[in-house]
């Protein structure tokens, strides 16, 4: 039954993508801001479908830490879920995405239209300079710039590997950084169509102030995100009635 519900959701999800992309074509002749609300509605429909079909709910913690103006947000990345689920939570999000996604039909067109920030991961320091410039422009417009500091999805409980992009942005833009922890990978299983019923928790942590030494900033960011994500991982496992692989999670194993 779980597999059947997951397949039904997958079909509904892509139908929603196709319908919204087609219906929203007139947005291409309107200013960017005119499209924010329709895209947030699209994301809410996805969350609704996920809840009704698969029994996957969302809980938001730390609402008081959600920025309402220009800000940097560093989020844990475990599944495709957060690439749309964060959209309706924030007033005017700008995701930093790998540039290859801009080549996709429909999705890439909308990513460009709504000024998402593409990064060429093979371009090294040039890419860092480019995302700094575009990130600064987005923040100056009052947007919330979202970066996944590990650069790719990481399985729940796996050892993290943070890239240099977030530290570069923190130093160049001199803005507070809001860490975000989550446990989406337990319910939106990477490399599988399965969507396990339960509660995905996304937790916004207090902002890390600008001006810290980069090593101090990096250690604090990793600690904030990973400690909270490990805690949410254990909560999710308990809800699912599961135990960590090997019987112990990463945090417990390192204690």
From TrEMBL:
Signal peptide positions on this chain: none
EC class of the enzyme, as a word: transferase
SUPFAM superfamilies with a match to the protein in the record: Glycerol-3-phosphate (1)-acyltransferase
Listed transmembrane segments: 7-29
Family matches, as CDD domains: LPLAT_AGPAT-like (cd07989)
Keywords: Acyltransferase, Membrane, Transferase, Transmembrane, Transmembrane helix
Pathway stated in the Swiss-Prot or TrEMBL entry: Lipid metabolism
UniProt superkingdom: Bacteria
Pfam families documented for this protein: Acyltransferase
EC number: 2.3.1.51
Domain Phospholipid/glycerol acyltransferase stretches: 71-185
Record GO biological process: phosphatidic acid biosynthetic process
GO terms assigned for molecular function: 1-acylglycerol-3-phosphate O-acyltransferase activity
Protein name: 1-acyl-sn-glycerol-3-phosphate acyltransferase
Organism: Amorphus orientalis
